[in-house]
Design goal:
The structure holds 2 protein chains of 2 kinds. By secondary structure, chain A is of the alpha/beta class. Helices cover about 35% and strands about 20% of the residues of chain A. The C terminus of chain B is likely disordered.
């Protein structure tokens, strides 16, 4: 009898595995930085190669780091949301312009508006590597204690902002899922 | 003709392989080997199915540059892999470490071989029990009476 039930059982197990897998987000990689001290950086400003943008400026207060680039289509998509978040003045947004052209980036901010307190120019992508960036846009939340609280890998939306970022800015929450996202590229 | 097609295809492949890593070769062949091994063991997190040796996206090029710099700084293989893990997580390694989320991946071959062995033992035992009447000769359970036709 078991000889006939065994294949059926194996098949059922396979179906169960696939069923679990179907809902799983395989695009979003968990960030090993969550809960760890945020990487420090000092780069030139997009607007002025002689000016520095440093993470130390934001020590002691929560801030958001948004990785973007002019070649990134989804960044254009999320730009309006960033402008809206910036207008609420809840927390400063620092831009990290990743592997980009300085002139194009300046033009982008002039045309679409500038949601950033400051924008660091990472043309060599070195700071992005320290942050484990593997695409754009990516948005990090850094707490007052200097630790990375959250990472969102996809265009920012008001829903994500209110559900994931705001509660963490206002106080610590139990992190069941500290990375969200669904990249469509 | 076939040989020439093969040569032609191979030549094309070589050119492709050469075009991805545009950095200069190492002066020391041993260092070159080491570099090749490391970049083949690191996954391109942007392009998933490829190692950073095989991918020509910007991030893979940046990570290859990073590996070169870490090697130049005298870092060991373990330190370089740890550097990548600290930033991109275990996923970046093509050879994932054994931990709570990967134990099944590592144990699966053993489990399957074990299950196969159990099934094999059961089948062999059962088959060897079937004809109890055979003699101890080379004929495997074939009754001696039917042996006459054998060459």
């Amino acid at each position: 009898m078991w000889r006939y039930l065994l294949p059926v059982g194996l098949f059922a197990a396979l179906v169960a595995f696939f069923f679990i897998g179907i809902d799983r987000d395989k695009e979003t990689l968990p960030s090993p930085l969550i809960g760890k001290p945020a990487p420090q950086f000092e780069l030139t400003a997009v607007h002025d190669p002689d000016k520095k943008v440093a993470s130390s400026t934001y020590a002691g207060k929560p801030y958001v780091l948004n990785v973007w680039a002019t070649w990134c289509v989804a960044c254009r998509q999320e730009h309006k949301t960033l402008l809206e978040i910036a207008s609420r003045k809840e927390v400063p947004i620092v831009g990290l312009d990743w592997k980009d052209d300085r002139a194009l980036a300046q033009q982008w901010l002039q045309q679409l508006g500038n949601p950033y307190a400051e924008t660091a120019f990472d043309d060599e992508g070195r700071v992005a590597i320290d942050w484990g960036v593997y695409g754009a846009p990516e948005t990090f939340l850094i707490g007052a204690d200097g630790k990375v609280l959250f990472k969102h890998i996809a265009p920012m939306t008001m829903e994500v902002w209110e559900r994931e970022f705001l509660p963490r800015i206002n106080g610590p929450v139990a992190d069941k899922r500290a990375v969200t996202g669904a990249r469509t590229e | 003709m076939k040989r020439w097609v093969a040569v032609f295809l191979l030549a094309g492949w070589m050119q492709l392989a050469g075009a991805i890593d545009t950095g200069p070769a190492f002066a020391d062949p041993a260092q070159q080997d080491r570099y090749e091994r490391i970049i083949h063991d690191l996954r391109c997190v942007q392009c998933r199915g490829q190692s950073i040796a095989d991918s020509n996206v910007g991030l893979a090029a940046d990570l290859r540059r990073q590996v070169r710099e870490l090697m130049a700084a005298g870092k060991s293989d373990v330190e370089i892999m740890q550097y990548m893990r600290d930033r991109y997580g275990d996923y970046v390694l093509y050879n994932p470490p054994l931990n709570s989320s990967t134990w099944l991946l590592w144990a699966a071959p053993l489990i399957l071989v074990g299950a196969g062995a159990v099934v094999a033992v059961i089948v062999i035992r059962r088959k060897s029990k079937l004809p109890e009447d055979g003699d101890a000769g080379e004929d495997h359970g074939v009754p001696a009476a039917s042996d006459t036709g054998a060459p």
